[in-house]
Amino acid sequence: MSTQTRERDQYDDDGYSIYRQVIDADLIREASDHVDWLLANNPGIRPEQLHNNLMTNDPFWVRLVADDRLLDVAQQYVGPDIALFASHYICKPSGDGQPVLWHQDGSYWPLEPMDVVTLWLAVDDSDVDNGCMRVIPGTQSTELQEMQQNQEVDNVLGSSIDPQYLDESAAVDIVLAAGDVSVHHPNIIHGSTANTSQRRRCGLTIRYIPATTRILTDGQWPSAFLLRGSAVDSVNDYLPWPTYQSGEHMSFRGSDQWPPSVPAGP
Ligand SMILES: O=C(O)CCC(=O)C(=O)O
For the chain, how many structural domains are there in total? Predict the structure, then answer.
């Protein structure tokens, strides 16, 4: 049985929590190199839009989201059998980094039940000046609403929540140092402003599900990996962990031995 932590208590009360210095500087450096590598290999994609469809065959990405320190945090929310649903670098370049308008994540997701948690790993220091994430505490109890198309300004999602659900005066800034992690609930109303500073603001969103949550998809979901524990029979089809190929993938510490032995299937 998992122990209730101070962070978990805050999540239950407010819909979010913060864990300091989860990932060491060397791995954060590799994550930052990974963003540069992805951008070089995917010309034309904005750095806010590095999505999980790019990770199906990316050993470093899987290595990062399967890091035991992140899974130990995720386990406090989803239990010991952990799969990945989605992951996305939101890398706001200096000067013209796009905002993420106020929204609820679960409204976009084909999950049944909506049992899922997001970890947001700071790849750069993230603060008010470079457009850190902002949350409205307590709104995890707001039912999921349909998001509305919104192109008033260039923005990452192209949609936002109806303003009637929004009390921006209650927003809290999630200020993180590189290597810190924030955790948020799929219903919490959150977003972030544009990055007009001279510093990049990069974070990796990681959406973890318990093996009991079904991904509703017609085909193979591009980032369905079993990361810890066991699968549940007939719930999801999981992808094999990608094998590192020199020259095809970004090299990283331990890449020649990647993947290690994978968790047992059903
Ligand atoms: O990175 C951001 O600014 C927003 C992140 C977000 O909306 C999310 O993780 O769901």
Answer: 1
Whether 33 and 66 have beta carbons less than 8 Å apart is answered as no
pLDDT in tens, 155-210: 999 999 999 999 999 999 999 999 999 999 999 999 999 999 999 999 999 999 99
Ligand 1 atom closest to 190 (CA): 7
Q: Residue 165: what are its φ and ψ, rounded to 5°?
A: -90, 0
Domain assignment present for residue 262? The answer is: no
Asked whether residue 41 is domain-assigned, the answer is: yes
Choose which residue among 48, 104, 133, 139 to substitute to test ligand 1 binding: the one with the highest number of ligand atoms within 8 A of its C-beta. Answer: 133
160 domain-assigned: yes
Type of residue numbered 61: W
Task: Check which CATH number belongs to the domain holding 143 and give it.
Answer: 2.60.120.620
Residue in the structure block whose two tokens are 């992808």: 239
Q: Which amino acid is located at 165 in the chain?
A: Y
Ligand 1 center to 235 CA (angstroms): 27
Domain range enclosing 26: 6-257
Angle at 27 between CA 120 and CA 196, to 5 degrees: 50
Ligand 1 near 105 CB (within 6 A): yes
Task: Give yes or no for residue 118 CB within 6 A of ligand 1.
Answer: yes
Distance between CA atoms of 239 and 246, rounded to whole angstroms? Answer: 21
Residue 230 to residue 265: CA distance in whole angstroms: 6
